[in-house]
C-alpha cells in the first residue's frame, strides 16, 4: 500500500512540475493557464465540493479531483508545449535557440 501511495505521489509531483513549466511557456494556450489558476484557487479556497467537516471524505475529494484535473489539462496541451515542459521538468535546458551560447570576446593569454 505504501509503495502505491509513493508511486501516486511521484506521478502527481511530476505532473505539477510539468504544469508549472507549461504554464510559463510562451506558447501555452490561455485556456490552460486559466485552468491551472482555477485549479489552484479550488485547492486553496474555503469553498469545497465535499465539506472538510466530513472526516476523510472532505480531504479525499481534493486528493482525487486535483490530480485528475491536472492530468486532464496536461493531456490537452499542444504537443510541442508539453514536450518542452517535460524537458524542463526533467532538468534539461530549454531548447530555445534564439540566444545561443557565444564564446567569450576576450581570449585568455597564458
Summarize the structure.
By secondary structure, this protein is mainly alpha-helical. It contains four helices and no strands.
**pLDDT averaged residue by residue:** 80
Beta-strand segment tally: 0
Span between termini: 62 Å
What is the 3D form?
A: elongated
Radius of gyration over all CA atoms, rounded: 19 Å
Beta fraction: under 5%
SS-derived structural category:
mainly alpha
| Biggest pleated sheet | none
H/E series, N to C?
HHHH
Number of helices: 4
Low-confidence parts lasting 5 or more residues at pLDDT below 50?
Answer: none
Query: Helix proportion of residues, in percent?
Result: 55-70%
Structural features, described:
The protein has 110 residues and is mainly alpha-helical. It has a domain at 14-89. The chain is built from 4 helices and no strands. It has helices at 2-24, 30-44, 57-75, 79-89. Helix 1 packs across helix 3 (57-75) and helix 1 (2-24) packs across helix 4.
